[in-house]
Every structure is written in structure tokens, then in C-alpha cells.
Design brief:
There is one protein chain. The protein has 277 residues and is α/β, with parallel strands linked by helices. The protein has one domain: Rossmann fold (3-Layer(aba) Sandwich). Helices cover 34% and strands 23% of the residues. It is built from eight helices and eleven strands. It has a nine-stranded mixed β-sheet with strand order 1-2-11-10-3-6-8-7-9, with helices on both faces. A two-stranded antiparallel sheet has the order 4-5. Helix 1 runs parallel beside helix 2, helix 5 packs across helix 6 and helix 6 runs parallel beside helix 7. It starts with a strand and ends with a helix.
Amino acid sequence: MNSYFETPTRDFVLYEGDVRVVVPELEGRPFDMVFADPPYFLSNNGFSIQAGKPVSVNKGEWDKSKGLQEDTAFNYAWLKACRQKLAEEGTIWVCGTFHNIFSVATVLAELDFRILNAITWQKSNPPPNLSCRFFTHSTEIIVWARKQKKVAHYYNYDLMHKLAGDRQMTDVWRMPAIAPWEKTCGKHPTQKPLALVVRAILASTRSDALILDPFTGSSTTGIAANLLGRHFVGVDNCEEFLKISMARRRLLEHEKDAWIEKIPDLRTLKSEDNSLP
């Protein structure tokens, strides 16, 4: 299978296509980690606030619910495909909100994953609630699970303890949404902040890890992986987003040091012991 894009060292490889088709065809060593930001199924013609202006919450046809049965079948298909390519001691991180995360958790259980944590990403700068008829949405959930119930996973407890100020790191991570500097090559409508993915990778992988993102979008996972010296494979069925991914990866060659300074966990590590790759 031909890649859409790859770096000369193949530390960043992109494929174009449906995750349910492409992932089963991937060859090579199993993945140590999967980071997935799948459709939330929340495009319902509602509105939110962005830069002080009302904007539609619709992301595209790919984010519209097709009903509980079809949405769950989709989650089952892509999670099963990823599980088959995951190392026995590997783990998976899946992002969501109440629109999709309960379906994801149910499917993870059906596929015999062991759920380790449900991380709450508390946004320090959430958009306001326009209707004023319910609580303001300010969080997203990232479920962390390991492939096998009886095979130990990797968790860098000491590093997380250090980054939490010599305390046990909790499952609530307070971080802002993406900053303007993360969107210079173009914006994906559900783009995650680099700081969030960097922490997940630091917590659950060793330095030689191979990481898969089956809904790569603008490849925040890939940029985070390469910042940390890991190898990356990304899959997406939208060429527009793959072009943004390519541009971001090329920009990384020139902006790596500047980006490290903008990510709190990496800035801490660099200032304390210069242990970054």
C-alpha cells in the first residue's frame, strides 16, 4: 500500500483512506500506542462562539450522527481494526464528549480492552453557553485503555509525578484549547492542542515507540510524536487535512525549538535536565 506522504526517515507517514479499510492493510511492527480523535457525532446545526462571533458547530458530513446503531457499528469497526494492529502491551487513547464516549467505552469493553482512566480535559478557555439553558460545556473526555486485561502496560509514573510538581498526577488535566500558533498551516475543526497529546505520549510510551492516529486530521499526534522522538503513522480520508499535516510536519523542521518552549511539560523537562530528544 502506497503512502500519501512520508519523511525520508519514515518517522512520519500518512495514508489516505477510510480507517476501516486502511488500518487492516498496514504492515510492519505492531503499534505501541493509538491516539484517536474520532467523530463525536455532534454536528446538529447548533451554534457556538469563536473569537466573539457565533459559529456553526457543524464540522462536516463525517461528524453527523446516523443513529445509535450505525454510530456504534462504526465505533466497533474502527476500534477492532486498531486493536488488531496494537502491541500486546499497547494502549489506546480515545477522545470524546457525551455524544460519543459512552458508545466508545461500551465497545472497548466488548473488545476486551481494560479501561485504565477517563481523563477529563478541562479547558481553561471554553466558549460561552449561548442558550443559557444548561451548564457551559468546558470539558472533553479521553479514555485510556490497554489491549489486554492481563498484560501489563507502560506508564511513566515517575515522569508524571515530576510534571505534577512532585505529586501524583490526577485524571483532570487543565489546559487551554489550541492557540493561534498551532493553526498557522490551516485549521482542522476538531484540532487538539499539542500539549494534550504530548502528555499522553510521555505518559504511555517509551522513546522508540510507534504511534498510530486513525483519524489524523492535521496530525497533532504526529507532530507531538516527532517532537518526542517517536515514530508515527496517520490515516485520514480527507486530502485537505492531509495537506495541512504535510505542511505542519515540514514546518516542524524549522520551529521545533520554538514549539517546545510553548508546551509547558516540554519546557519543564528542557529546563530541568535537557532530556528531550
